[in-house]
Amino acid sequence: MVASAAPNHIQKPRGHLGRRLVRSVDRWILPLYAFVAVLYLAIPVLVMIAFSFNDPTGRSNLTWKAFSINAWLDPLGKPGLAQAVTTSISIAVLSTIIATILGLLIGLALVRHAFRGRGIVNLLIFLPMSTPEIVLGVSLLTLFIASTQWSFVPKGTFFPLSFTTILIAHVMFNISYVVVTIRARLQGFPRHLEEAAADLGANEWTTFWRVTFPLILPGVIAAALLAFSLSIDDYVITEFTSGQTQTFPIFIFGSQLRGIPVQVNVIGTIIFVSAVLFVVISTLLQRRQRLDPVEAEEE
Amino acid sequence: MSTIDVRLVEVTKVFGQDVAVDHVNLEVLDGEFFSLLGPSGCGKTTTLRMIGGFEEPTSGLIELNGEDVTWLPPYRRNVNTVFQNYALFPHLTIFENVAFGLRRRKVKGAEIKARVAQMLQLVELRGFDQRKPGQISGGQAQRVALARALINRPAVLLLDEPLGALDLKLRKQMQLELKRIQQEVGITFIYVTHDQDEAMTMSDRIAVMNRGRYEQLGRPEELYERPTTRFVAGFLGVCNLLPGHVDGTADAYALVALDDSTKLRLPLAQVSGSTDVEVGVRPEKVRLLELTDDVPAGANVLRGRVKQTSYTGVSTLYVIERSNGQTFTVYEQNLERAAANSLWRPGEEVAMTWSPDDTFAVRGASTASTADAASGSPSVNETAAS
């Protein structure tokens, strides 16, 4: 009976030390490590969320006293807070819209057209991303002050610093991120789809709105979400370009000396939850990455 | 049938240093299935793209139905294209893909519905209208691409290697299908392919392209039976070529003397004007006989020794070597010899014989434009295809 004897010889060798080690790493150590890492990242946020339900006795919200939802019922109930949040959101929304539109156009130009100076633009677009924020902030402040000396700039346009100057600063650094995100999407764009649209009677305008834009929309949304999140939490550049105007981060920084109100934790929690939602949405959108049903070899 | 649908006059396309299309003149007739056949890089796709409006010619004129469209963008030409990779819109349903052209022309909703349904029926894809391109197979995507183009009732349909991405069996099936659809709708098809079987199966006429020009244009049987250049002879199947020179006439045939002064007969029209030629014959035209057998009167005869025998089922392939070392390929149908178990064996001496009418001559290898044509080596990169 040769057939029945065979299995004994081909049985898996057991108890090999190295293999057992690999298996236990896979089963226990990696998940444990991942859990600890996530915990490490999440603890500050979890503390912030927990303290949004605190009822502190003194000014500072640093020691746990009692559970309360007072701050949640009145999240903007501190002087200047409502104004700061409104300013931050307005700047984030406006700078996102402006930067996304400009960035989309720049991205299209960079990917689609060979023009003089394209190489330099491609390089310069990284500049705001790679320059330290503090340097950008100082440069912008210098520029805004210097502009008061230039006769062609109407008085009061850039100085005193205002909502406008913050917006200009945010649009500037946001454009880089938008261009980089959208450019990646456009580079993988199957151009023959646009040829097909033209072939079927769509002019350039219709082709853009019916074919190109719907297909790069996930990239555009991802870029806009990134821009929004960069704008709403920016402190350093805003500090240099805000003057008397208070944004939410600047309000927090300022109130640190007097004691941060519980409302800051509430708003922080809201922002965190919204951010998580954004990430979930954008991940879902990015899943629709595959553009082409057939990856045919071209001639 | 005789009106000219598409006319190319001296059309040239240069990409940087490369001449992709070199002074091409073409006339495609109304309702015709016309193929541009050639190896990769021969300029066939570029030619098609210029007709479609995706490339502008460097010089020359393109007419559709007598109207000059050389500089019109694709969306203002009454032609539609089936792209090599189908180019279906991934974000639209099959219905919306097919309806795309009609929507651009503001056709009413009810009519769109009816026409899309009719088109999907023509390509046998009823019930697929709500699927997305990602949810159908390659063969089905191919049919959608065809429906999406045909629904616009173009004057000309351009097809750029549309079956290239399909497997062999599906390709054969789609070839017949395409031919059926073309006959059903009666639209002029211009078909680009590098597959000579595909071109011959479907086309009314074929232009065989090489290095930015077409070397010969004609019906499939003309090209196969009487190729005029070495490249065409080699591209459309196996053929035996022997160099020689024209040496008089006999019985209304031209005589060509080979290197060893053997004389072969071929129709006079085949050698008009030239002296140095290559004489050709297709392998299946040649019959093998015993040296002692009677040769039909007037037939061409060459002797040789069987070098190799390969039985392939339908036929047997022999490689015959002549005394001067030239080899000949011969296909013999498996009739009596196969049944009698007496296929020619290597080493046997045979007489190869064929009719002078099956003999053709191609321009001598000295002609610059065809010097290395048989190898099909592309000298021009088909930049536009990528």
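qc> The two ends of chain A are 58 Å apart (CA to CA).
qc> done
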